[in-house]
Automatic annotation (TrEMBL):
Domain of life: Bacteria
Species lineage: Bacteria, Bacillati, Actinomycetota, Actinomycetes, Pseudonocardiales
Protein's organism: Lentzea albida
Protein name: Uncharacterized protein
């Protein structure tokens, strides 16, 4: 890769958009895996979970997204003189940490792209930790690639509609239905319903039909 040439403006826009969407990718990947049923067991009828190998792949992708975004946040923050608490980041939950990292990177993309020879601790092909010197452009392109990989995993969930009815579990209007799926997911509390069950809980007509 010719890192000295950097990225053209169109690519830069593309990368910024991808970085901005990574936190949402992360959440969608999480929904894609399926939910643990503890605490919401009464709603859990028909919950579908991915088979374990697929699940591990998706979790690995989630982890890579967080690692890559966080890895670049520290040098970017340092170059801009903005605070970034590495220790705090290490202790933070991955979702909010990723949002924080992606906001920082998207807002300061030219700084990321200008970084050269940043030493980073990475896993090599033999699963050993090694220090590699990498450029910001490599990081930007890897974040773009991670967004694309998430898109491919989530392609099966495409055409997702936000439903107007509030979630029966949390009351927030954040329930989404993937076209043709027999389940719906609440983006707010994460509960998952079988479609018929959801209709019964939210649509008075569905209840009447059943009673008659
Ligand atoms: Zn909810």
């Amino acid at each position: 890769m010719n890192t000295s040439a950097g990225l053209c403006l169109a690519d830069e826009r593309h990368v910024r958009q991808a970085i901005t969407r990574l936190p949402e990718d992360y959440v969608r990947l999480h929904l894609h895996i399926g939910r643990a049923t503890s605490g919401t067991a009464e709603f859990a009828t028909g919950t579908k979970e991915l088979p374990v190998p697929l699940r591990l792949d998706v979790e690995g992708l989630q982890r890579e997204i967080v690692e890559e975004a966080v890895r670049w946040s520290e040098p970017v923050a340092e170059a801009c003189g903005v605070p970034w608490d590495t220790q705090h980041a290490r202790d933070s939950r991955p979702g909010p940490l990723l949002t924080q990292a992606c906001t920082l990177l998207a807002d300061r993309l030219p700084v990321l792209l200008a970084l050269r020879d940043v030493p980073q601790l990475v896993w090599d092909v033999d699963h050993q930790r090694t220090v590699l010197e990498r450029d910001g452009v490599d990081g930007a392109l890897r974040l773009l690639d991670l967004h694309h990989r998430a898109g491919r995993v989530l392609a099966v969930d495409r055409k997702i509609y936000r439903l107007p009815e509030p979630c029966p579990a949390c009351g927030v209007s954040a329930v989404e239905h993937a076209d043709g799926a027999d389940i719906v997911d609440c983006r707010d509390c994460g509960v998952r319903f079988v479609w018929d069950d959801f209709r019964r809980r939210t649509d008075p007509l569905a209840r009447l039909e059943e009673a008659s």
